[in-house]
Amino acid sequence: MANNPGARKAVRKIARRTEVNKARRSRVRTFLRKFDEALASGDLTAAKTAFVEAESELMRAVSKGVVHHNTGSRKVSRLAARLRKASAA
Q: What is the mean pLDDT of residues 70-83?
């Protein structure tokens, strides 16, 4: 357990940051789910809109340090590939 003032403060900061990061991660997952649903419904215009929003949210998470840069780029790339595949079909 934290046993000096600096360590106690660090524990408080970590707890606050964890809550913020959880919310950001949850927000990203929500946008990814919206993209999945739009793609599954077959509505390409909705899927394109959802893709733009999901990409934006993922890159925002990257900039905030919630998701690693390569992870964000990989996810966006895979979403784009799925969108291209659905558009071609």
A: 97
